[in-house]
Design brief:
Layout: E1 21-34, E2 40-52, E3 56-67, E4 74-84, E5 89-100, E6 106-117, E7 122-132, E8 141-151
Antiparallel strand pairs: 1-2, 2-3, 3-4, 4-5, 5-6, 6-7, 7-8
């Protein structure tokens, strides 16, 4: 079994489920008066970390939107995991939390699901999504059941 040893990565090897690796990355964006965002600035940054083993994956990210229209400013995090039950089946879960600066309301999202790898190019994912703490009404919740086909070459 191969081991991926560089926590910041080298860019020479694609991350694979069968590898052992850890990765940390920084990302962000700076826009001055973006038309897409009501001619307001949109400046944000984040950090993402992932740890992978052939049996499981755990990752988390943190984001800080420091400058932008009121409805976009805030701080939040996301945590997700994948447990590989067999070569073909995976259990997945994710939790998101974002607190807006404008009114301190929190937006929360939870997802749980199962994935089935049909072949090396196609994976089917069935999941349940629950959202709550909408920015406009913190008592509002939404539920969804989704079936997705991921196709990759």
């Amino acid at each position: 079994m191969e081991t991926y040893r560089y926590i910041l990565g080298t860019g020479k090897q694609k991350a694979k489920k069968s590898l052992k690796y850890a990765n940390v990355s920084f990302f962000g964006q700076q826009n001055k008066e973006s038309n897409k965002h009501g001619n307001e600035d949109l400046n944000w940054m984040g950090v993402h970390a992932v740890y992978n083993q052939p049996e499981f994956l755990v990752s988390a990210q943190y984001i800080d939107v420091a400058d932008g229209i009121d409805s976009k400013r805030g701080k939040g995090y996301s945590v997700n995991g994948e447990y590989r039950v067999t070569d073909k089946y995976n259990l997945i879960a994710r939790y998101d939390n974002f607190k807006q600066d404008i009114d301190s309301k929190e937006r929360k999202r939870s997802l749980v699901g199962v994935a089935y790898e049909y072949n090396k190019n196609v994976e089917f994912i069935a999941n349940y999504l629950k959202e709550g703490g909408d920015a406009l009404d913190s008592t509002k919740t939404r539920d969804a059941v989704m079936l997705t086909a991921a196709v990759e070459w």
